[in-house]
Amino acid sequence: MRIAVPSKGRLREPTIELLQDAGLGPETPGDRALAFPCRNAPVEGLLVRADDIPEYVQDGVVDCGVTGMDIVRERGADVLELARLGFGACSLEAAVPNESDVQRVEDLKGARVATSFPRLAHELLPDAELVDVHGSVELAPRLGLADAIVDLVSSGSTLRTNGLRSVGVLLESQAVLIGPREPHEEAVQLAGVFKSVVDARAARYLMLNAPDESLAQICALVPGSGSPSVIPLAEQGMHAVHSVVPAEDVWRLLPQLEAAGATSILLVPLERMLG
Ligand code: AMP
To answer: Residue 169 pLDDT > 90, yes or no?
Structure first.
């Protein structure tokens, strides 16, 4: 099976790391490599531009590929999203100079909007007059080329540095695994493996000991996938509670559990989550 991997940019390394965490054993490609084999699976990685990946997948040159959702939409390729990969998160946003009167996306009717996403901008802002630029989009208002821009934003610091403020999100994006309309069984299986890794990365396994008097309160605090496992300990009046919790909740959850009387709290990473 052939999988297209972005040859450069911010999606390249996280994609190779995903192949690694999925257990495929990709041979680390050198900077100039065009392809790399995997040690543990009959999978070949082809390093191509992220922009070209939707077309390669659509045309069947490769069996599947990793690229940004924004790129898939911008290229207008007829492909299937097989899995969301949880990295490369960003949003396509409309932004204006700080001093502009524009407050909302609706105010951009008839405005000149600079973008390197002409297709998406036309689809999402049909009443704007688009100015096509390639790179340094943030400069366009300062150069007097446009009243606003449509560009990808993740932290918002590039906008701030350039004296711009967002007036609205047009599209949320992240990296995706895509396949052709009728994907091969192997590509669907790989999507399942990737999902199990992506889900596991977003979760942690929590173990703790709870005195019987606070067991109910502690179980109520732990969301878990389903219900937590409650296991009697050798010591009378104590139970162990095991549960899977969202990684993003951990910072809030642990002090609450401690305050509720939980002891010996352990938190460990997960490799895979299925079912
Ligand atoms: P690059 O090759 O580094 O330009 O990355 C291209 C892709 O990375 C974009 O099409 C997005 O899917 C994703 N991405 C994630 N965050 C950002 C960001 N802040 N700016 C641009 N692209 C981003």
So the answer is: yes
The Cα-based distances of 266 to 31, 96, 238 in angstroms read 40, 47, 16
Residues 6 or more apart in contact with residue 54 via CB below 8 angstroms: 65, 67, 71, 72, 75, 77, 79, 178
Q: Is the CB of 98 under 6 A from ligand 1?
A: no
Upper half-sphere CA count for residue 31 (Cβ side, 13 Å): 0
Write out the H or E segment, with its range, that includes residue 191.
Answer: helix 185-201
Does 11 contact ligand 1 (Cβ within 6 A)?
yes
Tell me how far apart the alpha carbons of residues 246 and 65 are, in angstroms, rounded to a whole number.
28
Which uninterrupted H or E stretch holds 19?
helix 12-21
Cα–Cα distance for residue pair 175/178, rounded to 1 Å: 10
For residue 138, the 8-state DSSP code is G
pLDDT of residue 225: 58
CB atoms within 10 A of CB 46: 18
Dump strand ranges (E) for 190-262.
203-211, 229-232, 238-246
pTM (2 d.p.)? 0.93
Note the pLDDT tens digit of each residue in 33-63.
Answer: 999 999 999 999 999 999 999 999 999 999 9
Alpha-carbon distances of 38 from 45, 66, 90, 179, rounded to whole Å? 8, 16, 29, 19
Give residue for tokens 């496992």.
Answer: 229
Predicted confidence band at 31 (pLDDT cuts at 50, 70, 90)? confident
CA distances from 13 to 20, 22, 28, 113, 272 (A): 10, 14, 10, 32, 20
Measured by CA distance, the residue closest to atom 7 of ligand 1 is: 68
67 CA distance to ligand 1 centroid (A)?
9
